[in-house]
Amino acid sequence: MWLTNSSVGRKMVMGITGLFLVLFVTFHVLMNAVALFSPEGYNAVCRFLGANWYAILGTLVLAAGFVIHIIYSFWLTLQNRRARGNNAYEVSKRPATVEWASQNMLVLGIIVVCFMIVHLVQFWAKMQLPELLGEHLEFTGMGFVYAAFGQVWTLPVYLIGFIALWFHMTHGFWSAFQSIGANNDIWLSRWKATAKVWATVACLLFAIEAIWFTVQAQDKANMEKYGVNTEVVVENAIESLITITDAE
Ligand code: HEM
Question: How far is the CA of 192 from the centre of ligand 1 (A)?
Answer without folding.
Answer: 26
